[in-house]
């Protein structure tokens, strides 16, 4: 575009017409004000005119208006043209349409601001660690999370570690080193000590990024205050523990009542059977409460394991006897094999463990296998003597694909009315507490097999 010194248009090229929607004949003789937008202040234009009127080149970005009213952005250079007397006679503008770039930058700014506010509202800070230099950068929210409301805390890895609770510091260092050296994900819960002595719980998560050669160059992650969640979890656990404890006393009285009634001479055989059922139900409930308390201790790593030599054969027989009603309802055939042969009644299968833990873990797995079997199917319990005692529980039927990887995780359940998702989780916890291991394999062709290895 070429204009006179007053901004009246004398020449535009076809590209101008294509961009603005004006015909060339429409704008010749018109002032550039026809394209002026309301985006810029009067001071902006005053500065521009002062520059070009004094013969200086002006470079910058500004917003103009098309013929249809639509705004567009351009990066422009405006220079003065002089006549033979060295007087300014015209101005020439060379410009590039950068509307898409400006819109993309604005969208990015909006997205960044939205993300920044989301982190603040969620009480999350993000950080970046340069693995080579040790330089640590973090967002504005990290300082307050670590107990610093001002800028006195330096953004260094060393200063961050100073805020970590002394008892948790080595665990944090080990987690960071495992992430940077071994490529494992950084995921840890730890405590932070504020300047005033307040202790807060944090969850840190992160991962490493590598260059083209595969070398670790930086680590990115987030830190979130989870103190409220921890307090809520502790309160829930305290309430559950107290409830379990308080249930045991009245339950003991309920169990003793059938025993007392069965001593009476005038009760019938049928009544005795009903009283035995009530008594057995009471004992089952008492075992459930004891197991619940034991699970809590296992999760907190406070369970006192006292291993003894345990024979699994009578335990398995007891479980099968207790589940006869379910077995008949499903019309499932349950068989027990010893080294691929039928179990001899006099045969024993010894493991090192605790009687109640072995009973509960096997009961959970066997009942699951019966329930998961198709009607009229078979459940096979195999006892195999190897260096470690091996127990396999097999049934036809496949574990749904969406829960296969989470099969032993807490609260994992699928399509089971009233299921809590604690059976396989507690079985795994009990196996591992006794020094054993457990795994699951499943396929359409072979069915599902749970394999347990226990020390002898």
Could you describe the 3D structure shown?
By secondary structure, the chain is of the alpha+beta class. It folds into 4 domains: 2-103, PAS domain (Beta-Lactamase); 122-225, 2-Layer Sandwich (Beta-Lactamase); 229-304, Methane Monooxygenase Hydroxylase, Chain G, domain 1, CATH 1.20.58.970; 305-456, 2-Layer Sandwich (Heat Shock Protein 90), CATH 3.30.565. It is built from 14 helices and 18 strands. It has helices at residues 14-20, 24-27, 42-53, 99-121, 142-145, 157-163, 166-182, 227-261, 269-299, 312-322, 324-330, 355-372, 401-404, 423-433; strands spanning 2-4, 9-11, 58-65, 71-82, 88-97, 124-130, 136-138, 186-193, 199-210, 216-225, 308-311, 333-338, 341-342, 350-353, 378-385, 389-395, 437-443, 447-454. Strands 13-12-15-16-18-17 form a 6-stranded mixed sheet, with helices on one face. It has a 5-stranded antiparallel sheet with strand order 2-1-5-4-3. A 5-stranded antiparallel sheet has the order 7-6-10-9-8, with helices on both faces. A hairpin with a 5-residue loop joins strand 4 (71-82) and strand 5. Helix 8 (227-261) runs antiparallel to helix 9 (269-299) and helix 10 (312-322) crosses helix 12 (355-372). The protein is elongated, with a radius of gyration of 38 Å. It starts with a strand and ends with a strand. The mean pLDDT is 84.
């Amino acid at each position: 575009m070429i204009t006179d010194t007053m901004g009246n248009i004398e020449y535009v090229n076809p590209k101008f017409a294509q961009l603005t929607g004006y015909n060339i004949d429409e704008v010749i003789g018109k002032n550039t004000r026809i394209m002026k937008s309301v985006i810029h202040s009067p001071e902006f234009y005053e500065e521009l005119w002062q520059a070009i009127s004094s013969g200086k080149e002006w470079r910058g970005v500004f917003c103009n208006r098309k013929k249809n009213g639509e705004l567009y952005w351009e990066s422009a250079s405006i220079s003065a043209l002089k006549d033979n007397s060295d007087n300014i006679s015209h101005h020439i503008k060379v410009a590039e349409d950068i509307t898409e770039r400006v819109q993309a930058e604005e969208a990015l700014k909006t997205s960044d601001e939205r993300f920044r506010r989301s982190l603040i509202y969620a009480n999350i800070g993000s950080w970046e660690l340069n693995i080579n230099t040790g330089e640590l950068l973090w967002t504005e929210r990290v300082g307050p999370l670590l107990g610093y409301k001002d800028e006195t805390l330096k953004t260094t890895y060393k200063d961050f570690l100073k805020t970590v609770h002394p008892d948790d510091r080595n665990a944090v260092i080990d987690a960071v080193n495992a992430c940077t050296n071994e490529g494992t994900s950084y995921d840890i819960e730890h405590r932070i000590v504020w300047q005033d002595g307040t202790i807060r719980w944090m969850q840190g998560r992160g991962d490493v990024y590598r260059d083209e050669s595969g070398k670790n160059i930086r680590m990115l992650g987030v830190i979130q205050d989870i103190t409220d969640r921890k307090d809520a979890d502790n309160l829930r656990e305290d309430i559950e523990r107290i409830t379990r404890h308080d249930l045991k006393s009245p339950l003991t009285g309920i169990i003793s009542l059938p025993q007392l009634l069965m001593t009476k001479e005038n009760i019938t055989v049928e009544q005795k059977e009903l009283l035995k059922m009530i008594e057995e139900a009471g004992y089952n409930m008492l075992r459930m409460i004891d197991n619940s308390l034991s699970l809590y201790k296992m999760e907190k790593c406070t369970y006192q394991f006292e291993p003894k030599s345990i024979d699994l054969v009578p335990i398995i027989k007891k479980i099968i006897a207790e589940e006869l009603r379910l077995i008949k309802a499903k019309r499932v055939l349950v068989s027990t094999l010893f080294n691929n042969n039928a179990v001899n009644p006099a045969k024993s299968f010894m493991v090192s463990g605790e009687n109640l833990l072995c009973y509960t873990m096997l009961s959970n797995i066997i009942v699951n296998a019966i329930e998961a079997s198709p009607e009229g199917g078979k459940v096979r319990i195999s006892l195999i003597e190897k260096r470690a005692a091996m127990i396999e529980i097999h049934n036809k039927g496949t574990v749904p694909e969406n829960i296969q990887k989470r099969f032993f995780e807490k609260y994992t359940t699928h399509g089971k009315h009233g299921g809590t998702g604690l059976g396989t989780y507690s079985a795994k916890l009990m196996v591992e507490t006794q020094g054993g291991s457990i795994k699951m394999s499943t396929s359409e062709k072979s069915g599902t097999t749970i394999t347990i290895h226990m020390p002898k």
